[in-house]
Write a structure and sequence with these properties.
about 140 residues; 5 helices; mainly alpha
Length: about 140
């Protein structure tokens, strides 16, 4: 048998690799993070379609926790990569309660964290800020 890690664990590993002190190919690793995000999204969508919301709810909480880590905040500010993109967006597949309460609350919480981190980077010059944060925000973000 071959041991295979799930895509969410792979995403976490890629985030650690991106910000590792020995990493000298940051652009390449940021692309790997984006690939891991897409893989996680497809993995969760497949689980949602075949097994339902109960099965993926634990994974959603793992992704939310990952987005709240220092690495999740840094990747958002410095690379414009939102860890929450790993969660599929399809109102037809999710329960109404999730779409009405849980998802909006999660997006609001993570959005507040992202805004505070951006302010910190701007005030204290903590590091590079991705160009997408320097433009006006999109008015109709479906999330």
């Amino acid at each position: 048998q071959v041991a295979v890690i799930d895509p969410i664990t792979c995403l976490k590993s890629r985030l650690f690799n991106l910000f590792a002190y020995w990493q000298d190919r940051k652009h390449r690793e940021s692309v790997q993070v984006k690939i891991a995000l897409r893989a996680s999204n497809h993995y969760l969508r497949d689980l949602l379609v075949h097994d339902g919301y109960r099965v993926i709810s634990e994974h959603i909480h793992r992704i939310k926790a990952l987005a709240l880590t220092p690495l999740g905040k840094r990747v958002y500010v410095e690379y414009g990569i939102d860890v929450l993109d790993a969660i599929p967006y399809d109102p037809a597949l999710f329960p109404a309660a999730y779409m009405a309460r849980e998802r909006p609350n999660m997006l609001r919480q993570i959005g507040d964290v992202h805004r505070r981190k951006l302010i910190q980077y701007q005030r204290f010059a903590c590091g590079p800020i991705h160009p997408s944060h320097l433009q006006p925000a999109a008015e109709n973000d479906p999330r």
